[in-house]
Please model this.
Amino acid sequence: MKNRNLGIQILRSLLCFWILLNHCLNKNNNKKLCTILFKYRMHVPCFILIAFYFSNKIIISRNIINIKKRLERLLIPYFILPIIILIINNILYNYTSFSLFGRILNIKDLFYQYLFGRKLIPVFWFQFYIIWSTLLFIIISFLFGKKFSIIIIHIFFISYIIQYSNFNYKYFSNFSTQVKYSLGCFVEMLPISATGCILSSQNTFSLINNKINAIYFSIICLFLIFFYDVFKFIKSISFSGISLNVGSIFLFIIFYLVPLNYIKSITFKNIISTLTNCTQGIYSLHITTMHILSKKIIIFKYGSLKSCIFLYIFCYLISYFGYKLTKNNKLIYLFI
Model:
């Protein structure tokens, strides 16, 4: 708790809710809100930036024990949660009139889920990306040592060249949904991961003397990005273009530098930590939960903002109790 940045904790929760809105909000009935939120979809890119900013030290340390812990945190939910979903679906299908997928799921479904991060839990394409890009960066770190940052900078520029030449879009847009939105997003996410590592390795925030000015400047830049076309749009699988990277940096700066850690109250810090600690569970469960609730409860059928708020709270409660039940073993990674 002493070293935890509360601003980033809050940002993670806001990004998680932003993702939930993207998947569950009825865009036809909430056009103004959707225009603001989804023209520049920085929710996932900013999550990527946060992940690699804070895992960069583990990557460049080349400490096997720390690397193993990081991979466990990624792999446990990736492999275990799809099995849980498969079992729940098959029990419901066999013993009730309702199931998640309307059929019995089999090993083939599970195989495709693991192979691409999409099938039973579509949002796990994100886990798929994080796992493989982390492994890629770890390998680069072991191979090139102190030249790691130079290689990462090259990856940054090469990825954007592939994007802005439209090669990535043209190649992957012809594939199936599973391949397109898993492998196709890989090049789109790589420069954002590289940015997180670069910001961390350069110790960027230690160079910022005036935090208020930095926050103010970041807010102005975000306003320009959201409300004016200051960047060229390019064809995208999901998250192409440098605008998402730049916007994610400014979001990160704002919440990183908000001086919440100067508040001495342990009670306040515990409340913030408790309310923002279960984003993994909310992210993993929100689509499946929405699917179940929309079959039984009218309010969830229409995708209103109110129903999305209720859904977030409901998924949080599931994740919180799951966290409490598993806090003494590694299954805790399913929820936090």
